Amino acid sequence: MRWQRRKDARPAEIVDAAISVFTEKGYAATRLDEVAKRAGIAKGTLYLYFDTKEDIFRAAAHHAFESNLDAVGAADSAPWTSLRERLPELLLRLIDVANENRFPAIFRMVISESRLFPDLARIWHDDVASRILDLITTLVVQAQIRGEVRDGDPRLFAFSITGPLLAGMLFRETYGAFSSHTPELQALALQHATTVLDGLMLPAQAQADASTFKSSGVHPDEPRITGASNI
Amino acid sequence: MRWQRRKDARPAEIVDAAISVFTEKGYAATRLDEVAKRAGIAKGTLYLYFDTKEDIFRAAAHHAFESNLDAVGAADSAPWTSLRERLPELLLRLIDVANENRFPAIFRMVISESRLFPDLARIWHDDVASRILDLITTLVVQAQIRGEVRDGDPRLFAFSITGPLLAGMLFRETYGAFSSHTPELQALALQHATTVLDGLMLPAQAQADASTFKSSGVHPDEPRITGASNI
Amino acid sequence: MRWQRRKDARPAEIVDAAISVFTEKGYAATRLDEVAKRAGIAKGTLYLYFDTKEDIFRAAAHHAFESNLDAVGAADSAPWTSLRERLPELLLRLIDVANENRFPAIFRMVISESRLFPDLARIWHDDVASRILDLITTLVVQAQIRGEVRDGDPRLFAFSITGPLLAGMLFRETYGAFSSHTPELQALALQHATTVLDGLMLPAQAQADASTFKSSGVHPDEPRITGASNI
Amino acid sequence: MRWQRRKDARPAEIVDAAISVFTEKGYAATRLDEVAKRAGIAKGTLYLYFDTKEDIFRAAAHHAFESNLDAVGAADSAPWTSLRERLPELLLRLIDVANENRFPAIFRMVISESRLFPDLARIWHDDVASRILDLITTLVVQAQIRGEVRDGDPRLFAFSITGPLLAGMLFRETYGAFSSHTPELQALALQHATTVLDGLMLPAQAQADASTFKSSGVHPDEPRITGASNI
DNA sequence: TATGAATGAGTGTTCATTCAT
DNA sequence: GATGAATGAACACTCATTCAT
């Protein structure tokens, strides 16, 4: 923990302020004046605790990663049941935990700064991203062993399971301010749990029924969109 | 008239150079010296074609958006078949088209700069992101009408369908340089097509079989991972 | 005439354009783009006739001085009469000639740039300013010799004679755009001719009369200002 | 608290330095490096106290105007006497006050920059130039009421009274560095006071005498003039 | 320890000058 | 000769970093 210079509260306040500015503006556009202001101190005081702007950024990133890392660890200790029973609540929890730990904003920051700070991207990857994928992958593997889940690369299944939530979070984070199509994350988690478990498809018989229904004269275009859309 | 040709080509050359630097460093960290250097011109020459750095950025963004916008439009005119038949190839095509048009890098840039340039984020949202989601949503709705796809919010289904690919692309883009877990996008597309259509779950009978199998002494931890993983 | 590069019309057009821009904006704020535009040529063409911006400025200044120099010479050959008879028309002519030759604008430019181009200021001084003063000084000396004009430094008399006109011109040039107090130069010339010849003062008897008049009840403040003012 | 003192003094130091550079070089040719250097600070320090170069210029101009404005106000409270008694000392005082307040240099700067900063020219006009003219105009009007001064537009009389001094100041300011004919301002003020009060002309009898005198061969006054001319 | 005034290297932008056509 | 695209040195302005208090 090289980046933690002092034992008292100051560094933590600075780091909190730094996270908020860095996630908001990005590294390059962040002014240390702004960080100091949000931390309630003078700009020069930053240099009592950190050597450079980069130092502050790294400390902020590490701190931000930590809480997410802890959260992943906590999720890991969940009880052992079938995937079908567990997945919906797991996805809901992922969303809650992610929001509690500012995961979307920090993930976005990692995406933005990963070229300038590849070592930080690696830490996030190793400590957070990979761990979440590993957690899901392990669940899938266990379910495969139990015969609950079909054959297939469990790591790709992990993408199938978590990808939509990630996409939803990024959508909110990036377009949330103006898009009316931003998905409701909880609804997404619940519907996706079902979707990924049982698929989009109806059994053939239902399809036949639906075909009959369709031939009875209902317009095939956009009948349910309006009803189901969250616009 | 070698120069005349150059004069016409200059803005495009600059825009190309700009896209490469901006996507690499982000707006704030991009030095116009670097852009000029990559375009093979002097810094002052940039100002013959653009008024400000912001101008260059906007031109670069618009140009980058355009090719993706065109690609989405092209994908839209696909033939009319069942979702089951169409989805795998559609996802494969999405990946190809995305890569051809530097979609991941540009998407990443949009994510990074959306706070500083909300208008650009909106354009990307309206012209690219929303359109892709709309395209998928429409397919789903039509399939629902045909009785092919189950009830549910088709817009959330669109996230279930595209989210994993997006996550995979971002994963490559962000950690690709060092992660050994980066998913193979084509494999992901194919497996995810099946997954999202039919679900992860095996029929109950298969589960019973698998349970039997499992109780026969095989270690439940990571048996197939090594086989299926792309490590 | 080092500054005249070519014999054809081009240089003259450039010089004319240059005078107009330089007098308008000053040396530093003048853009050669603007000069070229007003001359109806491309910027690069300027360099076929002149080596540097300074060169153009010097050529423009010399040309502008020349016409004024010629005008002073012409005024010099005026007929020989008494100062009283000659002064009014002389001042009127000075004003006409000055305006015809853009004297106020050029004088203003000389004032503005005299520190940056002291050699030009010296030329203007020697060729124009001093000559005008010498012309007047000589008239005064001659009048003194004739006993027409009282004792005193004739060079200072020259300031007494020409200063008000100069001040009026500068006033117009500098505040003319917005001041409602800008003097009418012809009226100034005529009234000043009388003033400087015979003085402001009334004979003592007139003063006594006026005092009587005043005691008859007229308000002492601003009675004639409104009537006589040129506002 | 040496610094505290400095901090308070800084803006004034900067403004002083700025006045000196701006009056010397003009706005466009002034380099902020030079201003900083003369103020004994680094370039960046300027921006702790002012936002832009224009800001610094305006502050300098306002400050320079202020002292002249105050000086005009002070002159206004002069005692009430006849114009004949008052004018010589008034003109002498005007010259002293003008020099003390760098009036010539600042007036020159106003002339130079009035096109780029018409609002400043207006302020100078309203606060300084007009006020001086008004002060003189009022004196003249009062003298006219008393019967001391002849009929005529008192505002034009104000030009007749002040113009030579102004011309003399500008002459010094513009050609002072090299002209050997630069008028001595105090001598000019005194001689002009007499001239403008009583006129250049001698009474007819004196003229007759002078003619006689002249014919006797003696030079009546400074026939050195021709010798002193700088033609 | 804390401050915030001061610094100066670095960046975006301008424009006189050059030069291939 | 004439053009105007290209250049690059120079300047206004910013901001991470220093340091006297």
UniProtKB/TrEMBL annotation, chains A, B, C, D:
Top-level taxon of the source organism: Bacteria
Domain HTH tetR-type residue range list: 8-68
Chain spans, region Disordered: 212-231
Coiled coil: none
Annotated Pfam families: TetR_C_11 (PF16859), TetR_N (PF00440)
Entry keywords, A to Z: DNA-binding, Transcription, Transcription regulation
DNA-binding region listed in the record: 31-50
Protein name: TetR/AcrR family transcriptional regulator
Species name: Massilia aerilata
